[in-house]
Amino acid sequence: MTDTAHARIADMVAASPVVLFMKGTPLFPQCGFSSRAIAILDHLGVAYASVDVLQDMEVRQGIKEFSDWPTIPQLYVQGEFVGGSDIMMEMYEAGELQTLVADLPKAE
Amino acid sequence: MPMTADTIETMIRAAFPDAAVTITDLRGDGDHYAAHVVSAAFAGMPRVAQHKAVYAALGGRMGGELHALQLTTAVPA
């Protein structure tokens, strides 16, 4: 990964308390796993930013290295990598994701 | 070339000999799987580390030839 890609991804991660790297957009997810991640975030009612990796090859490849995680979607909360959609679902079912975002701004 | 459920299970078992591994072919197309892996090796590991350990067992195929693997991990009760 280039330094530029690393810096761009670091900026994206820091841009919002909750950031989802996904395929497609929240309205039109292009993959079942991304769709599931969005459904969980919408359920939580938390405000989030999303990055469509399909629009940016540098980020699509770079984020896997950045997070040391092989798949997309990827969730970041307050700059920390949380996991992919399976971990989001496990944490949601355990009530852990709710706790993680409890003090963060709500979606409008 | 898609991976078979047997191959996935064999690779996971090689890394976690004690594991109870359940593979489900979600669509019957040999390309969309769910895996549930229960192993004492996960004790004390954060979820991300547990999943990374399973991905490592799959030798970099996750996200490549293995596109869709819904993964859940647990420690034996």
Describe the protein in words.
The complex is a heterodimer of chains A (108) and B (77). By secondary structure, chain A is of the alpha+beta class. Chain A has a single domain, classed as Glutaredoxin, CATH 3.40.30. Helix content of chain A is 47%, strand content 16%. Chain A has helices at 3-14, 32-44, 57-67, 85-94, 96-100, and strands at 18-22, 49-52, 74-77, 80-83. Chain A has a 4-stranded mixed sheet with strand order 2-1-3-4, with helices on both faces. In chain A, β3 and β4 (80-83) form a beta hairpin. Chain B has a single domain, classed as BolA-like (GMP Synthetase, Chain A, domain 3). Chain B starts with a helix and ends with a strand. The model of chain B has no long low-confidence stretch (mean pLDDT 91). Chain B has 77 residues and is an alpha+beta fold. The longest helix of chain B has 11 residues, at 5-15. Classes of the chains: A alpha+beta (108), B alpha+beta (77). Chain A binds chain B through residues 32-33, 64, 68-71, 81-84, 86-87, 90-91, and chain B through 47-48, 51-52, 55, 60, 62-64, 68, 70-72.
Mean pLDDT of chain A: 95
What structural category do the secondary elements of chain B indicate? alpha+beta
Fold-level CATH name of chain B: GMP Synthetase, Chain A, domain 3
Taken in chain order, the helices and strands of chain B follow as HEEHE
Q: Report Rg of chain A.
A: 13 Å
What's the story with the biggest beta sheet of chain A? 4 strands, mixed
CATH class of chain A: Alpha Beta
Strand order of the largest sheet of chain B: 1-2-3
What sort of overall outline of chain A do the alpha carbons produce when their principal axes are compared? globular
Overall tally of structural domains of chain B: 1
Largest sheet strand order of chain A: 2-1-3-4
